[in-house]
Design a protein that fits this description.
about 120 residues; 3-stranded antiparallel beta sheet; 3 helices; YhjD; YhjD-like
């Protein structure tokens, strides 16, 4: 049983996923720069702007976590699972994540930041 409230656990999970989103976007920039695409700038601009937004949100999450005595770090990793240790107000919890679930969540976040985030702004 976890002692971490759902909204704060979501915050901690964002601290796991958002750095992975940034890693994917960085690799995409490298791939685009090496590619034979004729007009690279629009793609690079889209990715760079997306990275700025993700970095800003990650910074806010880290600030919140620091203020509220929350930490997360990867403690173990194998082919199927990755274990993270959550430190929450003096408590330590270990959570196993199925690697395909992590990949799917990162993909979902990429789609959100690249496409849906702007749509959500206009609908709100």
């Amino acid at each position: 049983m976890t002692r971490i409230p759902p909204e704060e656990r979501n915050m901690i999970e964002q601290a796991i996923y958002l750095p992975m989103v940034l890693t994917v976007l960085n690799r995409d920039i490298q791939s685009i720069n090496k590619s034979t695409i004729k007009l690279k700038e629009p793609y690079l601009h889209l990715i760079e702007e997306t990275m700025k937004i993700v970095q800003k949100e990650l910074s806010e999450i880290k600030r919140y976590m620091s203020k509220n005595k929350m930490k997360v770090y990867q403690s173990n990793h194998d082919e199927a699972f990755t274990m993270f240790t959550f430190l929450y107000k003096g408590y330590e919890e270990h959570h196993n994540y199925f690697n395909p679930r992590i990949r799917n969540k990162v993909q979902e976040l990429l789609e959100y930041y690249l496409f849906k985030r702007e749509n959500n702004k206009t609908e709100a």
